[in-house]
Amino acid sequence: MARVATGCEDQGLQPRKPLGQILLEMGAVSSAQLQEALKRQQEQIVPRLGVILVKLGYATRAIVYQALARQFSIPFISLADLWIPLHVLKAVPAREAFRNVLVPIAADERSVTVALSEPQGLDVLEHLRATLNCGVTCVLATPEDVRNAILCHYPKVATMGMPAERLPVGEILQQMGSVSGHEVREALQRQHERPRKMLGEILVELGHATVRDVYEALAWQLMIPFMALDQLTIDPAVINLVPRSVAVENRVCPVKADGKTVTLAVADPLDLFTLDNLQFILNLNLDCVLATPDDVLDAIRRHYPAE
């Protein structure tokens, strides 16, 4: 059986250079920014330098993960525009993809390549080798890219047989590297004092997470793809499928269409009454992606003519 090839097997996936040094070499951060982040890391109970750099606005999560890929000598890939063929998806059962938070991106008779967001996940790769009985190689991607690729590519029936319980949003945010355990515990304590507040709202109020972070975590919790709309240009033919008055009143924006099915960006996927009503009004099959409330409203303003 082939070994797991990541480019640094002999080191046991041990990093070769400090992450900060790699980011400096990439020109992604300045020396002053790095020193400030390192100081914050010593003062706070936040183990990951990359998390602090993102929170300070000095680096994007994608940049941090590109640096992590260099650190562990693993290729980095953006999954945003990657379409994965069905035969590749079949190489890794849906249950394994959801449980281990990884997605196959290439496969042949002897091996499969998976995208994951944890470069130290050697135990996961060993498990896959044993389960799939083939060689496994890996590439690195951001947590949101991996989770969204799973939700977008595996059919909805893929979640059948999955555990019924959902991970708490706080735990998902920790897995994404958006918050620390200390920050979640602080927010939970605040929530105990303000029980009507959602944990995600409190994390945003405390400055520990962004609204987008929280909605990405909600998307994974609800098994709905997340979509960032700020840079998206939507085909006018798709926009015309939903009248402006309907989009504004229900705070939804059509983002793509396939035959008699239109995909709506929504900020509240649990409002089943509204979705059922929309399906009746539009006489179309509806699918949903999750987006932040501000993104939905901004997309409506940008794509519909003002009245």
What is the gist of this entry?
With 307 residues, the protein is α/β, with parallel strands linked by helices.
CATH architecture of the largest domain: 2-Layer Sandwich
Strand order of the largest sheet: 1-2-3
Shape: globular
Question: What is the tally of beta strands?
Answer: 6
- Under CATH, the topology of the largest domain is which? GMP Synthetase, Chain A, domain 3
CATH class of the largest domain: Alpha Beta
Provide the β-strand percentage band. Answer: 5-15%
Rounded mean pLDDT score: 85
Number of domains: 4
Instruction: Give the helix tally.
Output: 16
User: How do the SSEs run, as a string of H and E?
Assistant: HHHHHHEEHEHHHHHHHEEHEH
CA distance, first residue to last residue: 65 Å
Helix content: 40-55%
Low-pLDDT segments, ≥5 res: 1-12, 157-164
**Main β sheet profile:** 3 strands, mixed
Question: Which SSEs are present, and which pair or pack?
Answer:
Layout: H1 19-26, H2 31-43, H3 49-55, H4 61-71, H5 86-89, H6 94-100, E1 102-107, E2 111-116, H7 122-132, E3 135-140, H8 143-153, H9 169-176, H10 181-193, H11 199-205, H12 211-222, H13 236-239, H14 244-250, E4 252-258, E5 261-266, H15 272-282, E6 285-290, H16 293-303
Parallel strand pairs: 2-3, 5-6
Antiparallel strand pairs: 1-2, 4-5
Helix pairs in contact: 1-4, 9-12
